[in-house]
Amino acid sequence: MLALPLVALAGPVRPAVADTVATMERHLDALQTIADQNNGNRAAGSSGYRASVDYAAKVLEKAGYDVTRQRFEITTYRLTERPAVAVVRPEKQRLRERKDYLVANFSGSASLQRPVVPAGGTRVPPPADGKGLKSGCSADDFPAETRGAIALVQRGGCMLTQKFENAQRAGARAMLLFNSGLPGEKEVVTITAENGNTLPIVFLSYRAGRDLLRSAEARRTVVRLDIRGKVLTKPTWNLIADSRGGDPERTLVVGGHLDSVPDGPGINDNGSGIALVLVAAQQMAERGEKPRNRVRFALWAAEEMGLLGSVHYVTTLPKHERQRIFAYLNFDMVASPNYVRFVDETLANPASVAIGDDFRAAFKRKGLVSAHFDSGGRTDTFAFIEAGIPAAGLFSGAEGEKTKSQQKRYGGRAGEPYDACYHQPCDTIDNINRRALREFSSAALTVVGEMARRKPAVPEATAARTLSSSPRYKGPYALY
Ligand code: TRP
Ligand code: ZN
User: Fold this and answer.
1) What is the atom index within ligand 1 of the atom nearest the CA of 333?
2) Who's near 182: CB < 8 A, 6+ residues apart?
3) Which residues have a Cβ under 8 Å from the Cβ of 214 and sit 6 or more positions away?
4) Mean pLDDT in each 10-residue stretch from start to end of the chain (480 residues)?
């Protein structure tokens, strides 16, 4: 006699959570193998990225989707020689790359040796409340001696681009921009000057800037800069796959970024989000589900180069297509080893917070607490929010440090980064927290399912184009 499996009688089966996690782990293993076979990374423009695109396309095609590769060009900047930043006077000292300084993305090239002229408005130490830090924000912060010299400016008070422009207008030959010294703003960060910039720009740690400022104020400091970089144009691809069925007039986009940084394999950032998007697509197909609303799965290129893939997608969509999208759900880093369950939403945008509420409710039903977070331009929700499309996502934490109260709520280690391997070679398959994978995928799949079936609601109809403020980041680049 044949033993009938009991589940066959119980109606449509939802794949067990264990299967979800096992499937995600297979995707993560595959991405790790791809990185291993391609110089240890999957960065946009590289062979590892192409292999990642091929892998994800194959998964989606096998599940029955028609997959579109959206090709576009990215402009990248690369240093062609090791840069050098050295104090020549009053005392010789070579600064260390990464520790003391980083050349700005799209910095101009130069070999020059010039006096350093501080801009007005520097505050060392910075004011405790952070207020009044506006060095270089106004044209008259730059004294006449700036012409032909290297301008020294402190971060804070306005967009960095404003400081670049003012320095260049004042005739500076190069610019050194040092961190503000406020809490969390002491180390070097990556900044971008955007393609087309010609001014040599170097970002300094607070400490390096402070030391230079002391002697520069006495007008005796000379610095030597050697920067050689070049701009390259390369093709890259976003991957798009639509659900079978579902009303195209109401499209839900579910996505994450597929590229890694050049420094590592990017398995948590963002293999984890990609594994989640792929498993959501696979499960919808396996169930033969034709959702009420159309669901569009999207894997973005070049997030790590300044959100280029998602920005390209949204800004080139015909207006009618854009109006069909009622929400975007973003998954960028969902398995950080020392995680917090962050719900990433644009706090000033009620329609974005409404999606955040859905994520919070999904966690809560599993007895899990979660925290508000506003990524403000650091991930792919940005282009959607700017276009007036409500967007929110999940995020398990990057370079930030876990606080004591977060440790009480989520466990893990206080005083340590959420992901100590963020943007590093050690962001491998061993950098994945299984429990986070389970919790985040459960909440994510619940919300994707609900929103795929949901009828139009009031908040989304009144979604305004409300950013929290001018964005402080463009992907990894600090703008402010
Ligand atoms: N997007 C960032 C990256 O890929 C990571 C990140 C930082 C992030 N803050 C975030 C992602 C907030 C989502 C939300 O490097
Ligand atoms: Zn990243």
Assistant:
1) 11
2) 126, 130, 133, 156
3) none
4) 41 63 98 98 97 98 97 95 96 96 98 97 94 96 97 97 98 98 96 95 98 86 97 97 95 98 98 98 95 97 97 96 95 98 94 96 98 94 93 97 98 98 98 98 98 75 56 90
User: 344, 381 in Cβ contact below 8 A?
Assistant: yes
- Report the distance separating Cα 397 and Cα 379, nearest Å: 12
Out of 379, 419, 431, 477, mutate this one to test ligand 1's pocket (max ligand atoms within 8 Å of CB): namely: 379
The pLDDT assigned to 16 comes to 63
Tell me, using a 6 A CB cutoff, whether residue 336 lines ligand 1.
no
Residue closest to 175 by CA, chosen among 147, 151, 144:
151
Question: b/e for 279-289, b at 16 or more Cβ within 10 A?
Answer: bbbbbbbeeeb
What tokens were used for 266? Answer: 């990017």
Minimal-distance CA residue to ligand 1 atom 12 = 375
CATH number of 17-76+233-474: 3.40.630.10
> What are the boundaries of each domain within the chain?
17-76+233-474, 81-227
| Domain covering 81-227: architecture | 3-Layer(bba) Sandwich (3.50)
Ligand 1 centroid–CA 394 distance in Å is 10
Residue 61 bears catalytic tag: no
Distance CA 291, CA 293 (A): 5
